[in-house]
Amino acid sequence: MAEVSMVVNGRTVTRVVEDRTLLVEFLREGLGLTGTHVGCDTSQCGACVVHVDGKAVKSCTMLAAQASGSEVTTIEGLASGGELHPVQAAFKEHHGLQCGFCTPGMIMAAVDMIARHGGGLLDEATIRAELEGNICRCTGYHNIVKAIAAASATMAGMKTAAE
Questions:
Q1: To which H or E segment does residue 49 belong?
Q2: CB of 117 within 8 A of CB of 126?
Q3: Would the pTM count as exceeding 0.85?
């Protein structure tokens, strides 16, 4: 057994877990944050993407104990003060979802992608390449790509307006 302590969506949590507890299990079962999905258990689908210390991580590949001492953000932690994160808003506006199962992982991957590319405009080829580790079985990715491009443009505009 291991005691893990981390900041999840701005709240410090401490729990005792089995050594083999995956971060995704800790979040879903230990903390009730069910927005992080388990799709494949093999790190292929990306439905379980969360941010650990600001970087996108497939939470089915990381032990909860490995995340101890880290800051973790899940899909539930993106919105602020009742306002959707710009990527969430773009997915809504551009219908970047169908069944919605992959959507939390796609959004978390997109937020990371935009942050790594400096919030500038992302082209379709870059977005598609960056989404390689996220599988959607419904949409064909067209609206997902449109949503990420729109969010990138919005966030670039927000950054420029703030400077």
A1: strand 49-52
A2: yes
A3: yes
